[in-house]
Amino acid sequence: MVNRSYPHGIFITGTDTGVGKTVVSAALLCDLKSAGVDAVYMKPVQTGCPRRGKKLISPDLAFVYSRAGITPSEKEQQLMSPYRYRRACSPHLAAGLERQKIIFSRIIKSFAALKRRHEFIVVEGAGGILTPLSRQLSMLDLMKALSLPVIVVARPGLGTINHTLLTLRELRRAKLKILGIVINYAGDTRKTVIEKDNLKTIEQLGNTRIIAQLPFMRALHGSAAAVR
């Protein structure tokens, strides 16, 4: 998956929440580090954060860096996850319940600061591309502001054709570069004729390619749940 023709980073999005964006982000970060790339991970908005003392901990940040064997400084962790919320809900609601507002300029400044320090940034969104960050702006608006090439994480099973094709359509309407689809077997899903045809149909109708398939790894998904 490593491609140095995109020197600043990649945006990992998904067809929905819970499709395995964080697992894919961790795999990509490990791949980049193994290739000798100075890469870091960024989760601009995280909901469902547990509290430890006076701080909210980003579970996705903790999971990805534990898999990569990296311990970022506290200062860099703030840049990597500038918005953290306790409630496990849509970002616009989580921010609203805490009487806060998600400001794009803060995220962009954090991204720019990381870019000055590192060669490559793996940015992971929250939910799907139309997940609202406010009453006016969505995750897609943030993706347009960062202007990174995109990898879409999708499920293999029933319903994935519609969800994936709609995601691809909106990304193209936003004129974002789509690198391809990663199919993540987030559950112990059998590869039946349905799953096989789903992948073929997504490639044909979506005019894209499946760039990777991640098998279900019980221990990995268990450790992800433990972090939360």
Q: Name the strands of the widest sheet in spatial order.
A: 2-7-1-8-9-10
Number of strands: 10
| Ends apart, CA distance between termini | 27 Å
Helical fraction: 40-55%
As a whole number of angstroms, the C-alpha radius of gyration is: 17 Å
CATH topology: Rossmann fold
Number of helices: 9
Q: How many domain regions?
A: 1
Secondary structural class: alpha/beta
CATH architecture: 3-Layer(aba) Sandwich
Low-confidence runs of at least 5 consecutive residues: 224-228
Biggest sheet record: 6 strands, parallel
Secondary-structure element series? EHEEEEHHEHHEHEHEHEH
Question: Which properties best describe this structure?
Answer:
alpha/beta, disordered C terminus, 43% helix, 9 helices, 228 residues, Rossmann fold
Verbal overview:
This protein is of the alpha/beta class and 228 residues long. It has one domain: P-loop containing nucleotide triphosphate hydrolases (Rossmann fold), CATH 3.40.50.300. The chain is built from nine helices and ten strands. It has helices spanning 21-34, 59-68, 74-80, 91-97, 104-117, 139-146, 160-173, 193-205, 218-227; strands at 9-14, 39-42, 45-46, 51-52, 55-56, 83-84, 120-128, 150-154, 178-184, 210-214. Strands 2-7-1-8-9-10 form a six-stranded parallel β-sheet, sandwiched between helices. A two-stranded parallel ribbon has the order 3-6. Strand 4 (51-52) and strand 5 form a beta hairpin.
Produce the secondary structure layout.
Elements: E1 9-14, H1 21-34, E2 39-42, E3 45-46, E4 51-52, E5 55-56, H2 59-68, H3 74-80, E6 83-84, H4 91-97, H5 104-117, E7 120-128, H6 139-146, E8 150-154, H7 160-173, E9 178-184, H8 193-205, E10 210-214, H9 218-227
Parallel strand pairs: 1-7, 1-8, 2-7, 3-6, 8-9, 9-10
Antiparallel strand pairs: 4-5
Helix pairs in contact: 1-2, 3-5, 7-8
